[in-house]
Fold this sequence. Notes:
The structure is a homodimer.
Chain A: H1 3-15, H2 20-28, H3 31-40, H4 43-52, H5 55-63, H6 67-76, H7 79-88, H8 91-100, H9 103-109, H10 115-125, H11 132-135, E1 142-143, H12 149-159, E2 168-172, E3 178-183, H13 184-189, H14 196-199, E4 207-208, H15 213-223, E5 227-231, E6 237-242, H16 243-261, H17 277-304, H18 306-311, H19 319-342, H20 351-413, H21 423-446
Parallel strand pairs in A: 1-2, 4-5
Antiparallel strand pairs in A: 2-3, 5-6
Helix pairs in contact in A: 1-2, 1-3, 3-5, 5-7, 8-10, 15-16, 17-21, 19-20, 19-21, 20-21
Amino acid sequence: MKRETLAASLREALEAPDAATLDELAGEHHPADIAAVAAGFDEADRLRLLQRLSPPERAAAFSYLDAPLQLAAARSLARGALAETIAELAPDERVDFFNRLPPAVASSLTPALVHAEREDLRRLRAYPEGTVGAVMTSDYAVLMLAQTTGEAIESLRTQAPDRETIYQAYVVDGERRLVGTLSLRELLLAPASARVGEVMIEDVIAVAADEPRSVAAARIAEYDLIALPVIDDSWRLVGIVTYDDAMDVAEDEATEDFHKAGGTLGDLGPSFRTAPILQLYRKRVFWLVLLVFGNVFSGAGIARFEDTIAAYVGLVFFLPLLIGSSGNAGAQSATLMVRAMATGDVHVRDWGQLLLRELFVAGLLGATMAFAVSGIGLVRGGPQIAAIVAGTMVTVVVVGSLIGLLLPLALNRLRLDPATASAPLVTSIADAAGVVIYLSIATHVLVT
Amino acid sequence: MKRETLAASLREALEAPDAATLDELAGEHHPADIAAVAAGFDEADRLRLLQRLSPPERAAAFSYLDAPLQLAAARSLARGALAETIAELAPDERVDFFNRLPPAVASSLTPALVHAEREDLRRLRAYPEGTVGAVMTSDYAVLMLAQTTGEAIESLRTQAPDRETIYQAYVVDGERRLVGTLSLRELLLAPASARVGEVMIEDVIAVAADEPRSVAAARIAEYDLIALPVIDDSWRLVGIVTYDDAMDVAEDEATEDFHKAGGTLGDLGPSFRTAPILQLYRKRVFWLVLLVFGNVFSGAGIARFEDTIAAYVGLVFFLPLLIGSSGNAGAQSATLMVRAMATGDVHVRDWGQLLLRELFVAGLLGATMAFAVSGIGLVRGGPQIAAIVAGTMVTVVVVGSLIGLLLPLALNRLRLDPATASAPLVTSIADAAGVVIYLSIATHVLVT
């Protein structure tokens, strides 16, 4: 059913006196679709829809809503309905949600949750935002060493209803230390009388709870895993990260890197379209103002050569072109580097090889562009100007490219995020270098 | 085992007279690790390692190698060993690999493959690069309407060894039309005597084979699927895309968008570190040279106002600062827009709302920056210059931001990729606008 049709059917079901039609509709559709339709409703209708869904359906739809809509719904839902919803959420969703609630609301809700859930929540909330611990779930399937594979399959069948996945199960010893793993596929293929301890994979790929969440996402992608077990310092199993959470993390991280590359500070929240205007202002103003002062260096560079400019005003014509090329070449190589570092293609130790290659590429690029502009130089200023412009072009493209290449590496060495080597930052630095190079060459040739 | 230790053990096993140690090592380690270690070996050792692995292990490790290493290995491996390897690859991997082989090598290998595999290959290769058809696999698990769930589980057990996944199975009718789906989890929870036709989900989320592959990746992420069925025009099941392939697609697409945003043309291949120098040159030179000519407009703008500049050389000091701010504000809003469009947060129809919000945000940003620079204007040129600089600043930040906002929307309307609204392109356009605005205001105030 198309979302437009679903929206119409849901509106109709809301008008019906009993909840049967609504339950049926919700049962037939993916909660992601219900949430998408609800997001398009106005606030009152959205609330009415959520109120009337059964708790599991409500929780499922709720978990697909954007964070601001979740908060708005939480503020308006009846306390009882909200507590039911929270109880039905998967542990990882629940923690995310609690972390976003105003502290007063969060603590007023905690008593309503049953003991085991409170414990889960307390434990998972203890991991700082951005770590593996904060995105993992504690709903994992466990097997015992002595079970036969037949018993293990039976046990997974029992665990199925409230586990995030039963397709990958984990084997723990008496102290809950992770000693092996088995996929449901491997269990189905093993002889029914074999013991779990005999057929399990002992060399388990795992991640520590306090590592950055991007590490878990990268590991899941690298090894094509359905879930990645999370362990503490004593190798005890504390949770799992599933492939679908890893996908969300990877998308979030790519978006954050994108924003940084464009010169915006950190996390913008879930939506550019709905982010509050003042928040957008705050995220953007820092770099813009900082770069103004960066550009003052370019201005100061120009001021040093005011005599040259006053004598040869024609030089100013080539100024945007030459400093622009320096900045553009820098932005290109910075983008290539930042992304290659984010995907693990390039490491700091490769800098020697990269520098050499970049020198070649930038040299070729500079030569091509020098050729392209020397014609304009010849027409507008004669052979001497053409030579100045061509020489400057080769130099600034090489210098700009090297700045773009080295800045992300240097940031990484200083344990700063290389993605902060934004296009605007690199462009500003390369611009200032371009101004000084151009006017130095021009002054040297024309004035002395 | 750490990769360094694995590398040492593998080297040792290569020296052993028989293959037993090597087989054991390969059995105990993830093929991604074997491939990572092999990539670090020199070419001769890598080849020796691949030659001596058993065909399934060799194919598994091979599929985790980067494309250039795969090609190099294909050129050097004995014809028989290569054919064995290809036969063991998953169909989607096999198609990717064949598509990258030089045509002569590809056609010389085809006869060595058994008939069914040749058919698969022919069919999958028929879908153009970048479509769902080109990334799907034909190794999916199928169930029949009349099977009981007990029989269905038994049938999945039989299909398990050579299916990409058995965790999601597809129900087809006599004409191979997709009529339903069941997860292994749902099968395990259903009563053993129920029929597949009774318990299956009929409202299947699917994708057409000729849609862009990014659509499949987005759908898998949105609905948290393990696999997405691929259908043809008559709703016949032709393949599936699994979550791990979707992760690779999402990463590829994000990388491509990144490169475009940084002003590089299209796909760089798998690695920035190892891409050939001439290829890097070709991908980068297009935008750089194009933008040189874009910057000629800035130069021409300046040339129109040469008299003003000659009379007030001090104005040149503020030139990089003002046009830089215009370009930076434009790069910021273009980045935010491009990413929001890529993740589906923003659609072309939202342009009115976005424009209004951007006007507010850019106005605030411009006012802040005008305040920041008016001090410098006052010190260097007195109140009149300060007023010119502040007025220009507000105008260029607003104009730059709107260019950054509208260019991706316009490209999308013209059915071009909005990611082509690269930072360098937006910066160049905003720069040229900044030059004209600044010198127009200055000429108006100072000269007339």
